[in-house]
Amino acid sequence: MTSTGEAVQFWVLAVIAVGGALGMLTMRKAVHSALCLAATMLALAVCYLAQGAVFLGVVQIVVYTGAIMMLFLFVVMLVGVSTADSLKETLKGQRVAAVLCGLGFGVLLIAGIANAKLSHFTGLAEANAEGNVQGLARLIFTKYVWAFEVTGALLITAAVGAMVLTHREHVKPPLTQRQLAAERVRENKQVTPLPAPGVYARHNAVDIAGLLPDGSIAENSVMSTLRERGQVRDVSHEMLRRMAELENRTADWLGRPSSERPRPGTPPSPRAALETVPNNESPSEEAE
Amino acid sequence: MNPVNYLYLAALLFTIGAAGVLIRRNAIVLFMCVELMLNASNLALVTFSRLHGNLDGQIMAFFTMVVAAAEVVVGLAIIVSIFRTRHSASVDDSNLMKL
Amino acid sequence: MNSLIPLLIAAPLAGAALLLLGGRRLDRSGHWIGVLAAAVSFAFGLVLFFQMLGRPVSQRAVDVKLFSWISVGGFQANAAFQLDQLSIVFVLLITGVGSLIHVYSVGYMAHDERRRRFFGYLNLFLAAMLLLVLADNYLLLYVGWEGVGLASYLLIGFWQHKVSAATAAKKAFIVNRVGDVGLSIAIMLMFTQFGSFTFSQVFAAAPQESRGGLTAIGLLLLLAACGKSAQVPLQSWLGDAMEGPTPVSALIHAATMVTAGVYLITRSNAIFDLAPDARLAVVCVGAVTLLYGAIVGCAKDDIKKALAGSTMSQIGYMVLAAGLGPIGYVFAIMHLVTHGFFKAGLFLGAGSVMHGMNDEVNMRYYGGLRKHLPITFATFGLGYLAIIGFPGLSGYFSKDRIIEAAFAEGGTEGWILGLTALVGAAVTAFYMTRIMLMTFFGERRWQPDGKGELPHPHEAPRVMTLPMIVLAVGSVLAGGLFTINDAFVNWLTPVTGHSEGNSPLSSGTVTLITIVCMVAGIGVSYLVYGRSAVPVNPPVGSALTRAARRDLLQDDINHALLVRPGSALTAALVYFDVKGLDGVVNGVSATIGGLSSRVRRVQNGYVRSYALSMFGGTLVLVATTLLMRSV
């Protein structure tokens, strides 16, 4: 039996850990999954500390949460966003079967643990008598020294392996600007520079598309990553409305007849009306 | 509270991780699920250590962490190189094993 | 000095290996290597012969063990050679006539691209034949026997671009196989009955064997002899074998290979002496073949096929003599040697004629060649006189003694055999005279060749005429030399035994009747082919002639008796195989294939799907473990 303090701590940590795990499972974006997992790992680290595994608890925070999870985040950033993030299942029956298997497995594990006679916990007071780190060190450098050395070799191998896998040899010299331009002409791509984002000096954010003469947005003025994520902010309606107001004010001042004034709030063109997404319902907000 | 609850927690986390491997398609998330399973077993090992009153369980957990680190390094490198050639991190896109 | 015996075989074998493995660089000199190998072997043979002459009679036979060949339990086979009076006769004949034919081939095959290979095969043949006659046990003899079959196959089919040659080679090979089966079963029987197949042990054990067993072995040996020596009923290959180059016909199908059967029977005299029934079969086969070959020889217009019929007939004489037992063995071998000389000479002469006539073989397109080919005419004529048994020439001495021995068999049997042999002698004189007249006498019936040119007959180069002259000299002298003081009889008696039969007719009477028969044959032939002109297109002829032109329907008989039922049996087996066995096999495989293609869908290539099955498997394992613990 443990103290009440530990019991309280356990229930708090258990909730955090399971919540994090479920979050990792259900979050659409890999970044969010990684953060959820980090939370679970931190909770587990505290569990280790509570169970007398001081060294492991610290290592869990430093190595797992600090190094490995950051490596994950790094790779997530490197790889970027892709369709793999979709939670829609493509294999028929896979999700149902997976959930059933998971449930069955969980029930089996829990039944197995419940069946085991685990009433007496020895506790680590004796083993940790001269300190947890000293105890571990004694074991690692005596009983487990061989395994320890082998894991060292494993780590070296893994490091070299990662380098070999990600290293890319340049088999030909990088293309010069002239060659790139020639290639663009040959492949019939856009030869001129791409249009810049931002509208009339009112916006200069990279996610706001420039406007074409007919008032619709120029998709290729926004970088492809944002376009793929659906994070293009379309401000054309507001711009056009403000333009119309400005012209109306000018017309008032000049005393023009109403037939020559533009009507406020009309969409710039049917094409733009169909294709652009309303500003207040941007997909990035929807995802969050 | 009986410390055996830690084991139940470990079982639960392990199951969630396993289900995640089966459900998620993003290779990186899949990897995270594997890590979760490893962590769950680490928790069980630490609890066993406490159960038996010696530090061997903790040593096991320690080695698991080392191996997991190595595995993550290589695994992520593989994911990156696959992504470079196939422009996809989905495990379903690499189904060339099929006839 | 007995170590020379293996060298006898080794020389041509080395020549064959060198020529066949040496490649193109030997193309220019290869034929002389072949000649040298044969000549060296002949020289060794002569040395051994004179050594043997120098020894007393009881020590003339020598045995040389080379190495232990197969040794398994009670089964003991040595690579050992036995050189006795009989073997040395064969060795000298094979290497002597063989060397002459090698020399002849240098000229005959001069324009053939594959001459080197031809000489390699000739050497291979010599080696195999020498192994056959030198072996001291039946198993080693069998090796040589098969080697001879292989070499003859290669040589008959040497012009493999001709379909007829390839077919003839296969035919010879397959017919020979039938005989070989007889020999192999005979060897197996010997091993089970006597526990050995060494000549000396088999012959020593033979008297204790039952008569039935000996008869069975004798009949099987006869079957083997029939195959190799082209005796009825396995005679059909010899005529077709004339598709090979003419030196091959001379070497294999006249002088040496076909005599292997006679050698086998003579060598096994201890068995045949104790099995009168088998001997009777031998005699019958010999007598039937004698007439069969003679009749075929009368009807053929192809000079080589006519000579082939003659060969068959003469071998028939030898087999007949060998079947007569101790009174005939010696004469069988004597006729074999003299026949080796004159038949080789005749074939080489035929080759020379063909050489001069643009390879034309039809005698109806010859005629009047004696002025154009004087040397060929002279040598061929001497061979002709020898074969018909003209008094004083070698054929006279050997054939006359066989006819005498046939009469000496005694009783009705003796009369029938003697009369058959006499008829054979008359028919021999008839068809040989026919060949002579059609080829060298009469008016020219030359036909233009493919390019519209008439042939220009010319004498062959000296390298070809020289062997012909040597053989002609042999044909004239051999018989006479052998009979001086009964030298040949005395020489062979220690091996084969010899007894003088008591003929109902005196020796002089038989000789007289034989000469009368011969003259009658010549006379009839002269009346038919010499007095009147020979028609260029063959007349229709009687039923017998037409049948004889088709080798007395041998192929039709074989086809009806063997090929048709065989084909039907094979077709039935194929049907059973396709419908029955294949049905079962294919059904099983189709079932498995169908199941697999269903099961294959599980393998969809998605890692997560595989992970699911792994996870499910783990689940089952854990559940099972827990259940087993709780039980």
Automatic annotation (TrEMBL), chain B:
Catalysed conversion reaction: a quinone + NADH + 5 H(+)(in) = a quinol + NAD(+) + 4 H(+)(out)
Enzyme class: translocase
Record note on quaternary structure: NDH-1 is composed of 14 different subunits. Subunits NuoA, H, J, K, L, M, N constitute the membrane sector of the complex.
Gene Ontology cellular component terms for the protein in this record: NADH dehydrogenase complex; plasma membrane
Swiss-Prot/TrEMBL GO biological process terms: ATP synthesis coupled electron transport
Transmembrane segment boundaries: 6-23, 28-48, 60-83
The protein's role, per its UniProt record: NDH-1 shuttles electrons from NADH, via FMN and iron-sulfur (Fe-S) centers, to quinones in the respiratory chain. The immediate electron acceptor for the enzyme in this species is believed to be a menaquinone. Couples the redox reaction to proton translocation (for every two electrons transferred, four hydrogen ions are translocated across the cytoplasmic membrane), and thus conserves the redox energy in a proton gradient.
Single GO MF descriptor: NADH dehydrogenase (quinone) (non-electrogenic) activity
Keywords for this protein: Cell membrane, Membrane, NAD, Oxidoreductase, Quinone, Translocase, Transmembrane, Transmembrane helix, Transport
Protein name: NADH-quinone oxidoreductase subunit K
Entry EC number(s): 7.1.1.-
The keyword Nucleotide-binding belongs to this UniProt entry's keyword annotation: no
Pfam families found in the cross-reference section: Oxidored_q2
Family: Belongs to the complex I subunit 4L family.
Compartments it resides in: Cell membrane; Membrane
Family annotation (HAMAP family): NDH1_NuoK
Domain of life: Bacteria
Membrane topology according to the record: Multi-pass membrane protein
Organism: Kitasatospora acidiphila
Main location: membrane
Record keyword Translocase present: yes
